[in-house]
Amino acid sequence: MPGEQLVYHLKVDASGRIVLPAEARQRNRIAEGDTVIITEDAEGLHIKTRDKVLADAQAYFARLAPASVCLSEEILKDRRSEAERD
């Protein structure tokens, strides 16, 4: 499916709801009760799972730090240093 674009024509009901097709939910591992995130930009609306949003955020921040730096270790060092000063 990489590179393939699927198009769904969905109707909005009187309450503003849409129903995601079962195959799209299955493919994206979206189960009843799951939360999805909808973002809007100049291109339109985009629906993503929480896991996808988290993965995108992690990838973004990973690009900001050199590969040799572990950001969680840096935070722990800072916290330990602050605790020692108190």
Describe the structure.
The protein is α+β, with helices and mostly antiparallel strands and 86 residues long. The protein has one domain. The protein is built from 3 helices and 2 strands; from the N terminus they run αββαα. It has helices at residues 22-27, 50-64, 71-85; strands spanning 36-41, 44-49. Strands 1-2 form a two-stranded antiparallel ribbon. The longest helix is centred in the middle third of the chain and has 15 residues, at 50-64. The termini are far apart. The mean pLDDT is 91.
What's the layout of helices and strands?
Layout: H1 22-27, E1 36-41, E2 44-49, H2 50-64, H3 71-85
Antiparallel strand pairs: 1-2
**What is the C-alpha radius of gyration, as a whole number of Å?**
20 Å
End-to-end Cα distance: 55 Å
Q: What portion of residues is helical?
A: 40-55%
Structural class: alpha+beta
Tell me the strand order in the biggest sheet. Answer: 1-2
Strand content: 5-15%
- Kindly give the count of domains: 1
Shape: elongated
- Sheet with most strands: 2 strands, antiparallel
Unreliable spans are none
Number of strands: 2
Secondary-structure element pattern, one letter each: HEEHH
Please tally the helical runs, counting DSSP H or I stretches of 4 or more residues.
3
The overall pLDDT average reads 91
